[in-house]
Records
---
Amino acid sequence: MFGNLFGKFSRNLAIDLGTANTLVYVQGEGIKINEPSVVAVNNRTGALVAVGRSARDMLGKTPPHITTVRPLVKGIISDFEVTEKMLKYFIEKVGRGKFAIAPRPLVVVGVPLDLTEVERKAVEDATFGGGARKVYLVEEVIAGAMGARLPTSESVGSMIVDIGGGSTEIAVVSLNGVVKWRSLPVAGDEMNRSIVQYAREVLNLVLGEKVAEEIKIKIGSAQEFGEQMEYPMRGRDLLTGLPREIMVTDAQVRDALSRSVRQIIENIKITLEITPPELAADIYERGLVLSGGGALLRGLDKIISQHSDIPVRVADDPLTGVARGLGMLLDDNALLKGIALPSTRETSVLN
Ligand code: ADP
Ligand code: MG
């Protein structure tokens, strides 16, 4: 009874709790929060100093008593307390204002494929701790496929490749379930690290990861794309220890990223090989969809298509697909209950 009462007035939420970015979708309204998954904490008091974009801007620039934390690693909670605080901050932020006493929301949270029971429980507990009345966990790849408008409910094989910050998840989805999948710890963060490593080994330049990410986004590519580009790379000279700026070219950045790109392609091929023939036939005909921020790397769709012999499409707005897919589930309770992973708790307090 209370469940219904609260359900009527509370604004249910869908949260894409990513390694790089956290998005909050409010039922009936759309995406209301889209911020980096970064929190700055005061070590002396444990208080939050900043969350999201403002915390990310502090990365690498904090005095000793402030620590910036990325509480998720490869989609898995590595710092429970900070994740809980971050969720609480975001849930309260979107809940503020409408009613004098905002009822606690039902929350759908996206999770990676390779979570252990303990890790799954941590996501549930952190979301309850963040203020949820009821929590449903849904595999991100299914949400991403829904967000990309793939026919996830039908008996048709769809392949989704989600390239996030910490991991790439490759999945074959049919009838609202994941049939075959692979997950690899090679995605956006690893690409940034490859640029840092390249700068040190080839150019004698010590680079911060934020600078590496900027270069990747500005001129990074998986394949030549017709136009030649260059971009200033600012770092510290390995030999003199002094600041130095050099121009890097798209070819150099491509060289740095090639290993990550190769690993993603290899794993797509392996997933295709283990896919049952009927579903594989659907995928060869219909192609695969790239989602997540890594899908935006120039030429990645083309090089994957060339090496796998199947059509590849980049999802529209790939950074928000999972959040939009999870949001769709808020409007279809039966589908949500059918897709959600079994809860690690029997029941919540109020439902
Ligand atoms: P997560 O779900 O793990 O939080 P996202 O799907 O939000 O990850 O993607 C974040 C990753 O996408 C980051 O590593 C970021 O550097 C990368 N990214 C964002 N835009 C681009 C781009 N234009 N080219 C290449 N990588 C990008
Ligand atoms: Mg993601």
---
Amino acid sequence: MSSALVVFSAGQDSTTCLAWAKNRYDHVETITFDYHQKHSIEIEQAKKIATILNVPNYIVTIDIFAQLGDSALLDVNKDQDISASHHAKPNLPASFVPNRNAMFFTIAHAYAQKQGLEHIITGINQTDYSGYPDCREPFVKSLEQSLNMGSESNIEFKYPLIHLTKAETFKLSEEEGVLELIIDESHTCYNGDRSVKHEWGYGCGECPSCILRKNGWKEFN
Ligand code: ZN
């Protein structure tokens, strides 16, 4: 029986990955992180989408990022401008959370070991991505090697969206049969805004994440 764990934030990318995994593996589980992000609404959406797609959803709470407070994406920094540059790393956006994916993937790897899952699927993307160095292929490959080495495991990371544009991700979600679900239930907006439904989905329409999604939708159509 083939099995996979999807690192699931309920965003457009990871929801597409979840459908992709469900169409390819016999058994699929999801893991979602509550790291006191501003847009914690995504945790509610993750539970909802997991229920709709009938997959287990394991939620992990991580306090350390809020304690460090080193990103405008965190609830403790509500008032910081999410569209600005990162205060300590001017080349990166303010929404960058140092070592977030290293932490997420390490915990996902431990959970996959416990559950006996062979693959970890992540929606990382280096084409239309937000400028995060921990979303690049060489980083995940090297982490995969370290984690397997340190635990005598052979778990493989997969990232089906790595070279896709946002428009191509919309197309893939259509092919995998979840385009409507993406529009209605996935959540991308950094500001956690679900008050207005646009043709591309819910969001403030102005944060970097909404702009990426909105432009991708235009190109897709
Ligand atoms: Zn937004």
